[in-house]
Design goal:
homodimer, 4 helices, 43% strand, 7-stranded antiparallel beta sheet, mainly beta, 13 strands
């Protein structure tokens, strides 16, 4: 028996995107964003949805660039902190976070040293729909700490240990066991 | 030491979205879509990115509606199958899948009985960017099987047992242990 829950935003799982940007004075900021995902293969692009109240939005409007850091499970508290406070209200947000920002080599945005995987993005499109601004960023590079790479040079998900969100319970979770292979397991049904 | 991996689409984790639609003759189809996420709070909207080659795209252009089913770990093989084949090439795709479609009560799209959580969406915007069409769907209802609900009437993530994708290894994974609470754990750093 199926039950109607109303118009709920129940995509499972939601990502935890650490969006890094510079303000108009070159100060780095990082914001925890749950609205977003990959939207295009060529060029490779990520979409993020930002509320107009976010400092990150005015930063990106100015700089036309941002980074997306992927936090690990050990960084859950600081990742949540970066969603609990805004630089508009607490200018010491970044100092309190203890994170260290260095300039991206490719775009006008900060790379956070502590995040083991970071996408460097330049704004390709920005458009309001409803309550949020959808920003499409072209991914110009992905930066990874060497200690999360596997022998093939790809990212080892167990070493990255990324987190995700349950949109009903508002909880963070780790990624669990591997259960299959894409474009492979379903071939038995052809 | 950070290493450049090039312009990779490394958002962790990616969702596994089962996009349901009717073709011009009212035949149901379901497609496995990895590009997408929530993009807007009010109205509540999901964005999906579809390649022009997908049958699902022409279906949605015609019907102006779609559903998003969230598959469970026990449905990983059929979920992968729905990404391995297209109804353009294999008209028996749905019959082979063994899934059962019923009409949505709210939009012109099929609800797949076997998926325990389904978002019913009407198209609010459709626009090409790069290789893909970004479709914004307004979520008009979320339908859940009663056996995945908790006592508060929300979705129990362990009962839903959703899957996700590792974009580097191209593998499916379950969701792992709960590690924290949103807008809560970070408050200790304020």
């Amino acid at each position: 028996m199926k039950k109607s829950l109303g118009a709920r935003r129940f995509i499972y799982p939601l990502p935890v995107l650490m969006v890094g940007s510079y303000d108009e004075n070159g100060n780095p900021d990082v914001c925890n964003v749950g609205w977003g995902g990959i939207c295009c293969s060529e060029p490779p692009c990520v979409m993020i949805g930002l509320h107009p109240s976010r400092k990150t939005l005015s930063n990106i409007q100015h700089s036309q660039a941002f980074t997306v850091g992927i936090p690990g499970a050990s960084q859950e508290v600081v990742a949540d902190f970066l969603g609990c406070v805004t630089a508009k209200v607490d200018p010491d947000k970044m100092a309190k976070s203890g994170l260290h920002a260095v300039p991206s080599e490719h775009v006008n945005a900060p790379v956070i040293e502590e995040f083991k995987l970071t996408l460097e993005c330049r704004v390709a499109k920005m458009e309001q729909f409803g309550s949020h601004i959808q920003i499409i960023g072209e991914i110009v590079d992905a930066l990874a700490d060497e200690d999360i790479l596997n022998e093939a040079g790809g990212v080892d998900i167990e070493k990255l240990d990324p987190i995700l969100v349950d949109p009903s319970a508002d909880t963070y979770h780790r990624v669990g066991e591997r259960i299959g292979k894409i474009f492979h397991d379903g071939l038995v049904m052809k």
